[in-house]
Amino acid sequence: MIIETSLNLWIGCVMHKAELFKGFLEFESNSDIKNTSELILSGLLYSQEDKIREDFKATLSALCLGFKAQSESQSPIEFILPLMSHNFDKISEYPCKQYFALFNELIDYHFKS
Questions:
Q1: Could you report the per-residue pLDDT of 26-66, keeping only the tens digit for each?
Q2: Residue 26: helix, strand or coil by DSSP?
């Protein structure tokens, strides 16, 4: 419930103020999750909880499909789709239903737009 609420709050802020996404991309930490890529993969692929993977999938889908990037900034789909493509070989090691569904959704959206 905490993760779902946090993701909903985060996406609301990012969709309202697009420049926050740039700050999200620049996230770095000394903890177990060292950067934005690891944060996304931790929630979408590495998590053992189906609900957490579903929440990340729904959030990332809404972000990629509904975000209006500023001309100089990278859009979410331009960041997330290559990240997922690069880590696609890991799906055999983890529960991957949500990862695969999001990947297919983003591929379809990318080629239709």
A1: 988 888 889 999 999 999 999 999 999 999 999 999 999 98
A2: coil
| CA 55 – CA 43 distance, rounded (Å) | 8
Query: Looking at residue 104, what is its pLDDT?
Result: 96
What single-letter DSSP state applies at residue 34? Answer: -
Taking the alpha carbons of 31, 37, 41, 43 in that order, is the dihedral positive or negative?
Answer: positive
What DSSP character marks residue 1?
-
Angle at 22 between CA 16 and CA 25, to 5 degrees: 120
DSSP 94: S
Helical H runs in the chain? 2-16, 19-25, 36-41, 50-66, 76-86, 97-112
Taking the C-alpha atoms of residue 61 and residue 67, their distance in angstroms, rounded to an integer, is 10
Radius of gyration over every alpha carbon of the chain, rounded to an integer in angstroms: 13
